[in-house]
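Q: I'm building a small set of examples for a reading group on sequence design. Run inverse folding on the following structure and report the sequence directly after it, with nothing in between.
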């Protein structure tokens, strides 16, 4: 059995100019017989406005390790669901599978671990007639791969966080806090 009990990762990949396709997944990876597995199974029911779905690459192609995703925002429309369960889900599924192919997630443990993802999809995407679906795929694919890598490698380390404590701050703190 795996010793991966509870690992977390996050990443942000910014959209191309003029798009609202930023991706900001937050993930937890852990053993199916541990707290992450319990949380995963508990998410199988639905919550109004926060649809949960298995990550699939296409029909009949659920990824391994098993992954479940949910939106960070309340889902407002069928168009939003189509993007979340289409391009975004496909990108996330490809990123998970490629993480196994690349060896970031060891192939021999894919049935022993599971992944929970909270996914950001800007509400404007569903209403944008000029939405670049290729950019939506790119940002979600890259961010998911990076979040998985960070979770599996324990990044950032506490030493990195301590070292950059006074040089990196949350963007929302500009003009609020001076370092």
């Amino acid at each position: 059995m795996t010793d991966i009990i509870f690992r977390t990762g996050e990443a942000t990949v910014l959209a191309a100019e003029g798009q609202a396709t930023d991706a900001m997944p937050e993930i937890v990876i852990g053993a199916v017989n541990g707290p992450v597995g319990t949380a995963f199974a508990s998410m199988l029911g639905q919550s109004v406005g926060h649809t949960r779905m298995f990550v699939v690459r296409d029909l009949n192609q659920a990824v391994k390790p098993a992954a479940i995703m949910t939106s960070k925002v309340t889902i407002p429309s069928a168009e939003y669901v189509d993007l979340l369960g289409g391009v975004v889900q496909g990108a996330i599924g490809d990123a998970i599978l490629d993480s196994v192919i690349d060896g970031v997630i060891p192939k021999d443990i894919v049935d022993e671990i599971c992944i929970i993802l909270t996914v950001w999809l800007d509400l404007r995407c569903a209403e944008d007639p000029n939405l670049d679906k290729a950019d939506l795929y790119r940002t979600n694919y890259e961010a998911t791969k990076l979040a998985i890598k960070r979770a599996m490698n324990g990044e950032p380390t506490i030493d990195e966080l301590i070292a950059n404590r006074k040089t990196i701050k949350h963007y929302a703190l500009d003009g609020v806090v001076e370092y």
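Residues 41 and 61 are 19 Å apart (CA to CA).
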